[in-house]
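Let us begin with a simple case.
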Amino acid sequence: EEHVSALFWNWETSATPPTEVPLDDIDLVLGTDIVYAGTAEDDTVATPTSSTSCLAKALAGLLKPRPGLKALLLLADRPSLERGHGKRKRSERQVPQFLGACSLQELTVNELEVTASLLRAALGCSAQD
């Protein structure tokens, strides 16, 4: 039976997948907006306890035991709502930190760049936003 299952997993408290996850039945891991401003405590690098590092460890724990299992993640650095629109602060650049944390976990990352104009169109924003 083919189906999609969504399940809450707090990777900051446990790098081990929840027992409800049928690991042998997973064909593809999907995730969107899982790395965003406010998920790291440091401006320049993912620390071992930062959310980006915890997520990378959890992802490695999910993917490494299953050779060939892939994860497709849609990640975008965006200004946070609290800081409003305008220039991004350094701490809002979480995607590079997450990709670095993935490298430390020896995960292979293939990055497909999404242009700013395509992202604005997808988000329904004008060029001035």
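The second case is a distinct protein. As before, the sequence precedes its structure tokens.
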Amino acid sequence: MMSSDTISKYSWSDGRKRVSIYVELLDADDLAEEAFTLSSSEKEVSLSVQGSPNSRRRNFALAGLYHTISSAKVVQKKGKGMISIQLQKKDELPWPQLLENKVAALPEDDD
């Protein structure tokens, strides 16, 4: 069974018609489009990245998005070591924050 890593470092920006989530992946330029598996619902998005068959899978997930979305897609930012997850807004409303409660779907360890 292959192990996986959680992607927890990201940035985001709010546009008029979509919200963009930026994730740094050092090997992003070397990955084929098939390496990305994206799923979404109205208030959630998740991404699984599988490079070579022997590499660790990387997972990213957010639940409780600030507003609803109608779709999502992955865009590779060639030459930047980054991908962008484009969330298509259901309604053209401003997003002052990415999540309703500012809590990611994947819990952090309490120290």
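The CA atoms of residues 14 and 103 lie 18 Å apart. The first strand starts at residue 4 and ends at 6.
Keep these points in mind for the review questions at the end of the chapter.
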